[in-house]
Amino acid sequence: MNNNIVIILASGSGSRFGAAMPKQFCNFAGRPLLMHTVECFTRVMPADDVMIVIDRTMDEMWKQLCADYGFASPRIAYGGQSRTESLANALAALDSLPDDTVVMIHDGARPLATSQLVRRMMTIPEGYAGAVPAVAVTDTLRLVDGAESETVDRSRYVAVQTPQTFSLGDLRKSFARYREHSVTDDATLVQRVTGGKIAIVEGEYSNIKVTNPTDMAVAESLYRLQHGGPDGE
Questions:
Q1: Chain CA centroid to CA 54, Å
Q2: Is the dihedral of CA 47, 52, 131, 167 positive or negative?
Q3: Secondary structure element (H or E) that encloses residue 198, with its range
Q4: Of 41, 83, 90, 146, which residue is least crowded by CB atoms under 10 Å?
Q5: Taking the CB of residue 45, how many other CB atoms lie within 10 A of it?
Q6: CB-based contact 135:161 (threshold 8 Å)
């Protein structure tokens, strides 16, 4: 029996993108960006095992976009005031699933995760509480402290991506009192609550997160390289 599910977080306002609607609903290679993100996973796993988290105010627009593009929406949960609250809402919607379900958590604004990456992230290495994809840092890094700064050894750092993978049981335990913690990503919360280690899995430099219009242009170019043709055809 399949024991995987993916939660795609797509309820953000996308204010930094500067468009009339959140970036996950903007056109990307001929269709709304979120549809491409969903297909990163439906190419590998059953559509029933995919959940998207969107803002409740975007529900009707998303359903209309799906009708316009002939796209079958996966199941939907509704987001909260923060990314962490949105994920907590999604976990609550999975209350019928067993604790040993393997959950991947992915950014809705990452439409270029390959099938190979998804397959790598479908399991948690033995002895670890979770797994995150990451790539080596190629830019020089400087640590800034007020008016002072100094170069740090970039070989000690990696850039973390999604999808990130955990057991549903560990996520339930970690998010039960999530408001008591101040963290910037899911792996940090799971590590802090469970005391488990997080495995680093090979990521992909092309698996970029679209945050601004420049990212969108770069991602579309990468998409065409991956799929061929002006719109990936």
A1: 13
A2: negative
A3: strand 198-202
A4: 146
A5: 18
A6: yes
12 Cβ neighbours under 8 A, 6+ residues apart: 22, 24, 79, 83, 108, 109
Per-residue pLDDT at 233: 46
Give me the DSSP letters along 110-177. -TT--HHHHHHTTS--TT-SEEEEEEE--S-EEEEETTEEEEE-GGG-EEE-S-EEEEHHHHHHHHTT
Output the six-digit token pair for 163: 């999808």
Paired strand residues for 133: 201
**Secondary structure (3-state) at 210:** coil
What's the rounded Cα separation, in Å, for the pair 140 and 150? 11
Closest CA to 53 of 4, 97, 107: 107
Kindly list the averaged pLDDT for each block of 10 residues, start to end, along the chain of length 233: 87 64 92 97 96 96 97 96 92 96 97 98 97 97 95 95 98 90 86 96 97 93 83 48
Rounded CA-CA distance 39/98 in Å is 25
- 28 bridge partner residues: 31
CA distances from residue 135 to 81, 187, 202, 203 in whole angstroms, order as listed: 30, 16, 6, 5
0.90 cut: is pTM over it?
A: yes
Q: What is the pLDDT of residue 124?
A: 97
- ∠ CA 222-212-67, nearest 5°, is 75
